[in-house]
Amino acid sequence: xxxxxxxxxxxxxxxHERYGxxxxxxxxxxxxxxxxxxxxxxxxxxxxxxxxxxxxxETLIASAQSAATSSNLQTWSVIAVEDQKRKERLSQLxxxxxxxxxxxxxxxxxxxxxxxxxxxxxxxxxxxxxxYLEMFLMAAIDASLAAQNAVIAAESLGLGTVYxxxxxxxxxxxxxxxxxxxxxxxxxxxxxxxxxxEKKAAIKPRLPQEAVxxxxxxxxxxxxxxxxxxxxxxxxxxxxxxxxxxxxxxQHSSDRIASAQALRNRAQLREILNRLGFELR
Length: 281
Ligand SMILES: Cc1cc2nc3c(=O)[nH]c(=O)nc-3n(C[C@H](O)[C@H](O)[C@H](O)COP(=O)(O)O)c2cc1C
What we know:
Elements: H1 5-19, H2 33-39, H3 56-65, E1 76-81, H4 84-92, H5 98-102, E2 105-112, H6 114-122, H7 133-156, E3 160-164, H8 171-178, E4 184-193, H9 209-212, H10 224-240, H11 249-257, H12 269-275
């Protein structure tokens, strides 16, 4: 397949930005607008106050529901938050992240085992399987796949998004704010809105494929060169974007996992999940 010059240039540029360096592979392989949307992703942390066109929420949710889901159990739900005061309270529960208050739509993605529990109880059926770690993981995976479909849909419509893992900083207070029953857990939030292009976010480079793509079997040692190369790329990226990051990616990542304290409030997650009704056996 031969790509038009315009498409080839777009593809080459996007791959360059995604890896922070020229990317060398069969550039004439298939390309389309979906791939352009995927490779153009960047998290957006500055939004216009412009509201979303009516029907946008429903379009995003239909996209989310089109994701695959384990055994079609659909063990996820989502809460759409548009009330300004509620967004402010959720922002406070997430380290005061300002974009939560600024975006017109804040979606909270839920691992939801309450629905299956409810329907089995209504029918007088057992639900012991819900008490196992496997079911919590399944629900978290389902919620993640659904959310990512919504992200791609939003980006294809010219909207920006940013995930908010900080919804897990104070899960019990988040659950109270959103009226979550037991057996429902807010996995992460997602800001959605029109990006403020005056503060346009850059595409953030990712690890070279040599680090993440393994052929046939896994290899750890061969990743060293790729990691070193990525450290150089990210040090330059942090400087260029004037990001307040100490050192390079390896250093930054190491700091995030150095201790239980580095997980911030999330080191107690197992106990919190237990209290929220997840036994995690
Ligand atoms: C599950 C998850 C949770 C995240 N939580 C936050 C968050 O709380 N605040 C934030 O500003 N960005 C958050 N992010 C965004 C990441 O920082 C971002 O995706 C990463 O730095 C890569 O940048 P990019 O999305 O612009 O490519 C989160 C991303 C994911 C996938």
